[in-house]
Write a structure and sequence with these properties.
This protein is α+β, with helices and mostly antiparallel strands. It has a single domain, classed as Rossmann fold, CATH 3.40.50. The protein is 29% helix and 18% strand. The protein has a four-stranded mixed beta sheet with strand order 1-5-6-11, covered by helices on one side. The chain has a three-stranded antiparallel beta sheet with strand order 2-3-4. Strand 3 and strand 4 form a beta hairpin. The radius of gyration is 17 Å and the shape is globular. The chain starts with 7 loop residues before the first helix and ends in a 9-residue tail after the last strand.
């Protein structure tokens, strides 16, 4: 979490309550520099690998100013998101090998603004699931971005961000596979009416998944 982002405290509070309700242990680093983003991720990895008890899943919430593929540290330097994701992959973190790793990224990915489009019906996307005997390096990862590539991510200076607040509401109100919960987050955000500098805006999260199994939060 980096400072100079009004509303962040509301998001932090909501996330702390959510993880407590879901039975997760949590740790937080405020105002990291770009280098400290990476250092804190490596500390997290070492701590997980050093545990003697079983670890079933890990969440990493990253909240900062940003551009596509990068986050801005307190020192105004950029860190590559892929370098952060790499720390917990199946090669570098044995305790989380073949275990779900969920990244929630609350950050801008550009400066484009979406006024929204008028549609007349719903689109249904069908997908297929493969069964693998061995796992690649980059499986079991779920990345949830607060906005799509190239677009601004909105945050209220008192109430926090639409993304984090909606995600916490859904994760604490509902049960089911996390991808279904995230679909509900996307639906609610798509319906939300945001006003930025007097202009109506739309925003929706983007979910990138290489999960091999259904992940439930309970």
């Amino acid at each position: 979490v980096t400072k100079a982002r009004e509303g962040s405290e509301a998001d932090i509070h909501a996330l702390e309550l959510m993880f407590q309700q879901l039975g997760f242990e949590s740790t937080m680093k405020k105002d990291p520099t770009a280098q400290q983003f990476l250092e804190e991720m490596k500390k997290f990895q070492h701590a997980i690998d050093a545990r003697e008890d079983f670890v079933s899943c890990a969440f990493v919430v990253l909240m900062a100013h940003g551009l596509e593929g990068h986050l801005e540290g307190e020192d105004e330097q950029m860190v590559d998101l892929e370098n952060l994701f790499e720390v917990l992959n199946n090669k570098n973190c044995q305790a989380l090998r073949a275990k779900p790793k969920v990244y929630i990224v609350q950050a801008c990915r550009g400066e484009q603004k979406d006024p929204g489009e008028i549609v007349g019906g719903d689109n249904i996307v069908m997908g297929a699931k493969d069964s693998l005997q061995t796992i690649p390096t980059y499986t079991d990862i779920l990345q949830v971005y607060s906005t799509v590539g190239g677009y601004i991510s909105y945050r209220h200076d008192k109430d926090g961000s639409c993304f984090i607040q909606t995600l916490v509401d859904v994760f604490t109100e509902r049960k089911g596979p996390i991808l279904e919960l995230l679909t509900e987050v996307t639906r609610r955000m798509a319906e939300a009416e945001l006003v930025q500098e007097g202009e109506a805006r739309k925003v929706n999260p983007e979910i990138q998944s290489t999960l091999r199994k259904r992940l439930y939060l309970q």
